[in-house]
Structure to design on (415 residues):
């Protein structure tokens, strides 16, 4: 019996365990998922410092002539105390001298005199009126306070998270291992892109597609090859893939005479959670496990396989990754054109989202390869819908970037 999309996704998340852990240096963290909270060890800034090149002064000296005693640069460990009637020239980022009440930018003062003496250059400046206390001073801990939680378990590390970690001098972090995915196709008619094909044969486009997409989704990927339509050859490919977290196959899951994939996996104790989905295209999509290895068997038709990989394959990978935002999410938009379809089954429709509306691909079929190459998203249309009018609301699922959520949400367009 076929399951619904919602039931299929629930079974996927229930039966796709998080990966084990490892420790990585800061330089290698990008794209990994944290398996621990990160707490600040230091204040940022670590001391009160100047936000401008200017002069450290007292507020009560506003409008007065003051003498500049010396200059403090970023990195200096100055212990001078500022007194009324004086100013200390200071550079951006330099530690604020004791007694400083505000910073006046260089361009806001008037240079009155600059004389050379035996003690060096003596400079006097006139300060502007109405000085504001604490102006242009960056205070210790105003950005980050020691003890603040910076990042938390389940967050995927992005470039600006690296900034936070570096600011605290954190060199190594515990993360989940990336999911390891094995990919192979089956079919006597299939040849790889580096082989010659005859008139009765096809290039295997599914495996390179899944390989590239799994890499984009942050996985370690192994290409096992293309199996012939025989139990013996498929068995050899399965054995080569069982050390991975996820095996993705295409072809051989329908009911034809040469469809051996599910039977071949059965010899290894394959526990099937669903083998049909109420969806078009891709009804025979199958998901199960052999021990701790998840298995996704997709149909051989390229567009059907690619669309179902986007929906189910990506969901398995997100569940395995430990990412707290593991649920596919949607962007609400409107239809760019009218669209008619045959009602009766949930339908995946590829198309292009331009930021304002979604334009469905005009003509596509399960065996095509071009629609997804020119699409950047897809919609799932409810089985009760046979017509979507221009301007009607739809929910797109992107294929060119991540858009996920911490909570499961409705993915289906019903208008």
């Amino acid at each position: 019996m076929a399951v619904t999309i919602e039931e299929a996704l629930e079974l996927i998340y229930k039966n796709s365990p998080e990966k084990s852990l490892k420790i990585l240096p800061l330089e290698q963290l990008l794209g990994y998922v944290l398996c621990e909270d990160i707490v600040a060890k230091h204040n940022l800034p670590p001391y009160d410092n100047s936000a401008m090149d200017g002069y450290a002064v007292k507020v009560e000296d506003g409008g007065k002539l003051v003498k500049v005693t010396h200059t403090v640069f970023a990195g200096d460990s100055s212990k001078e105390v500022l007194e009324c009637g004086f100013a200390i020239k200071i550079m951006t980022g330099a530690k604020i001298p004791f007694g400083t009440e505000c910073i006046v930018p260089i361009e806001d003062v008037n240079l009155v005199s600059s004389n050379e003496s035996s003690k060096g250059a003596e400079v006097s400046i006139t300060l502007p009126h109405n000085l504001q206390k604490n102006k242009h001073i960056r205070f210790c801990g105003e950005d980050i306070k020691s003890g603040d939680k910076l990042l938390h378990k389940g967050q995927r590390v992005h470039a600006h998270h690296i900034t936070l970690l570096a600011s605290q001098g954190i060199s190594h972090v515990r993360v989940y291992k990336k999911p390891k995915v094995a990919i192979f196709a089956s079919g006597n008619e299939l040849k790889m892109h580096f082989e010659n094909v005859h008139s009765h044969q096809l290039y295997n486009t599914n495996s390179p597609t899944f390989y590239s997409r799994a890499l984009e989704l942050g996985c370690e990927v192994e290409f096992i090859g293309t199996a012939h339509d025989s139990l013996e050859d498929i068995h050899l490919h399965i054995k080569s893939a069982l050390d991975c977290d996820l095996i993705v196959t295409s072809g051989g899951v329908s009911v034809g005479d040469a469809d051996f994939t599910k039977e071949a996996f059965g010899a290894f104790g394959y526990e099937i959670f669903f083998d049909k989905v109420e969806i078009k295209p891709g009804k025979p999509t199958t998901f199960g496990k052999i021990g701790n290895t998840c298995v996704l068997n997709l149909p051989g038709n390229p567009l059907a396989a690619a669309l179902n990989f986007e929906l189910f394959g990506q969901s398995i990978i997100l569940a395995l990754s430990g990412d707290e935002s593991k649920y596919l999410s949607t962007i609400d938009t409107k239809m760019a054109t009218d669209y008619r379809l045959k009602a009766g089954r949930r339908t995946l429709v590829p198309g292009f989202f331009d930021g304002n509306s979604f334009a469905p691909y005009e003509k596509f079929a399960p065996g095509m390869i071009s629609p997804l190459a020119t699409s950047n998203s897809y919609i799932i249309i409810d089985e009760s819908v046979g017509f979507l009018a221009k301007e009607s609301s739809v929910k797109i699922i992107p294929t060119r970037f991540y858009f996920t959520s911490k909570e499961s949400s409705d993915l289906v367009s019903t208008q």
In short: Helices lie at 5-14, 159-167, 206-216, 231-241, 261-266, 302-321, 370-373.
